[in-house]
Write the structure tokens for this entry.
Amino acid sequence: MSATAASGREPVSVEAVRAGSQEALAALYREHGAALYRLAYRLTGEQQDAEDVVHDVFVGLPEALRRYEERGSFAGWLKQVTARVALMWLRRARRRREVGLERVPDEAQQTATSEGHALQAAVNAIPGPLRTVLVLKQIEGYSHSEIADLLGISPGASRARLNRAMARLRKLLREET
């Protein structure tokens, strides 16, 4: 099985990563790291947490690939792994009741439009369980059944959380204007 690079580069061998090739792992990171970071950032709402989630995904990837059954899209499977790691990260953070320090925005955040910044701030202000369903459904395109499997809830609970998240998002965005 190979993960094919979108830019036309040589496909990255999943078998090589399973065998412990650091070069193949680095190639997978170059190919998928940015997309996985965006997902992790949307779920955690924090740059450092998203970086830590992606780091944890790639540290555990050789082991996780041993259980990978090569059904469906490899990129989709990686996103699912990342979502699970991000959810575990959020649960641990909630138990520790971490208080985040204000971070200096990176270049990408500085160049974001004020409208995009307001939207991201509103999404980040939504409570974790609701934000998770919102991100997975509306941004990442997961079905309610897939979200239910990821979160250990029913598809109906996923729909209800999405409705509550959308209502809060609308309210927060109205307050901005």
Observations:
- The longest strand covers residues 2-3.
- The chain has nine helices and two strands.
